[in-house]
Amino acid sequence: MHIKELVLDNFKSFGRKTRIPFYENFTTISGPNGSGKSNIIDSVLFALGLARTSGIRAEKLTDLIYNPDDDGTTVTGEREAQVEVILDNSDGEISRSQVVSAAGTDNVGDTEEINVKRRVKQTEENYYSYYYLNGRSVNLSDIQDLLSQVGVTPEGYNVVMQGDVTEIINMTPHARRQIIDEIAGVAEFDARKEDALEE
Ligand code: ATP
Ligand code: MG
C-alpha cells in the first residue's frame, strides 16, 4: 500500500485545488525555501489525523485554512480547507471488511483505492472538523483504528520530521529502545500487560 495522490484544497499555502501524484517507491519534492514542501507533509499528517495542530506548525486548526494575506491576521467569515489522501490498496493490505467496519457501512465502493479526507470549516462563531473514509463520514478514531492495523500510528515513525533523527541520536539508550519497541509493535503488548497487572 502506498500514497497514490494528495489533493489539497485551500490548505495552508495551497490556495487552489492542487493534485500531487506520488510514485510507488520513491518520490522527492523539491523547491525553494517557503514554497510549501513541508506544508505537503503537514497535509498528510492533518488528513490522516497523525499529529496535533502544533505538529503541523499551526496554533489552531483554522490557521491551516489558506490565508491570502498570510500575515498572521485572523481571518473571519466562512471558509474551509480540505485534504484528500488517496491510498493505492491494490495489494489488498487493508481488506474490504476492515474498510466496511471502519466506515460502518457496506457502501464504501471499490477498496482498491482508499480515500481518507479531512475538512476543517470555519464559520462566524465556530469551527468544525470532519473526516471521511471512501466518501462516508467517520470519526477520527475510525481512521486511526484502520490505519493502526497497517502500522500507521501517531506514535509511529511513518513520518520522520525535521529534527527527529538528531533527537533519536541524542536519546538515552532506554528511550531509544522504547522507540524500537514502538515500531516493532511490542510496546502495545507492554502497555496491555501493565493494564492487566493493574487490574
Ligand atoms: P523550507 O525549504 O524553508 O523548509 P518549505 O518549502 O518547506 O520551505 P513550507 O514551510 O512548506 O516551505 O511553507 C511555508 C510557507 O507557507 C510560508 O510562506 C507560510 O507563510 C505559508 N503558509 C503557511 N500557512 C499558510 C496559510 N494558512 N495561508 C497561506 N500561506 C501559508
Ligand atoms: Mg520545509
UniProtKB/TrEMBL annotation:
The keyword Phosphoprotein does not apply. Keywords: Coiled coil. Coiled coil: none annotated. This is Chromosome segregation protein SMC. It comes from Halocatena marina. The gene is smc. The chain holds residues 1 to 199 of 837 of the full protein.
